[in-house]
Specification:
The protein is built from eight helices and seven strands, in the order E-H-E-H-E-E-H-E-E-E-H-H-H-H-H. It is α/β, with parallel strands linked by helices. It folds into two domains: 99 residues, Rossmann fold (3-Layer(aba) Sandwich), CATH 3.40.50; 54 residues, Helicase, Ruva Protein, domain 3, CATH 1.10.8.610. The strands form two sheets. It has a five-stranded parallel sheet, sandwiched between helices. The protein has a two-stranded antiparallel sheet with strand order 6-7. Helix 5 packs parallel to helix 8. The longest helix is centred in the last third of the chain and has 18 residues. GO terms for molecular function: ferrochelatase activity; precorrin-2 dehydrogenase activity.
């Protein structure tokens, strides 16, 4: 498996299933500005609430292969193993498919992820040990606390600004490297002083 980060903006995602697992996958994708469609005979109240709130499409019937023909990403999350298996076999091998109860039948795995602003850290055991994945995610959650949110946003803003400065590339690299000093993560005042300094270089 090759880890990738994919922009799902405006991409069509079809989820077979209307229960707890389908909802969990949808919540993971919520905020990605994707076009999500659920196909299932029944939907939980919580899933219905999310779909109405976000404008996701609901198709109330058993899913079929035709439902996924235009999907950028297909997620098979019914509560029936045989249904997921049959759908997985019917889909084109070139499609992105996540089979939630048998990862080997698809080609996409949802990693456990820690997000702090632009910073994303993802981890998976490729199904070997979900408990290990959860344990490591918990450790990363603690290691990368909320201080990394403002810091990573600061780094992004500084990088964009430094790239536009009319100074030699070597000086740009020195400025970027210096920003990795931990004092900028720990102190908003330090970030503000550094930002003011960068603006003075223009």
């Amino acid at each position: 498996m090759q880890p990738l980060f994919i922009d799902l903006t405006s991409k069509k995602i079809v989820i077979a299933g209307g229960g707890r697992i389908a909802l969990r996958k949808a919540k993971t994708l919520d905020g990605e500005n994707a076009q999500i469609t659920f196909v299932a005979p029944d939907f939980t109240d919580e899933l219905l609430h999310l779909a109405h709130q976000r404008g996701y499409e609901l198709i109330q019937r058993e899913a079929s292969a035709d439902d996924f023909k235009d999907a950028f990403l297909s997620i098979l999350a019914t509560n029936e193993r045989e249904a997921n298996h049959a759908l997985a076999k019917s889909l084109d091998s070139g499609q992105l498919v996540c089979v939630v109860d048998e990862a080997g039948e698809g080609n996409v795995i949802f990693p456990a992820a820690v997000r702090r602003g632009p910073l994303q850290i993802a981890i998976t055991s490729n199904g070997a040990s979900p408990k290990l994945t959860r344990m490591l995610k918990k450790q990363l959650d603690e290691q990368f606390d909320e201080s990394w949110t403002g810091y990573s946003e600061f780094l992004g803003n500084c990088r964009d600004y430094i790239k536009k400065l009319s100074i030699p590339p070597s000086e740009k690299n020195e400025l970027l490297a210096e920003l990795l000093d931990d004092r900028y993560r720990l102190s908003e005042d330090e970030r503000e002083r550094k930002w003011a300094y960068l603006q003075s270089l223009e």
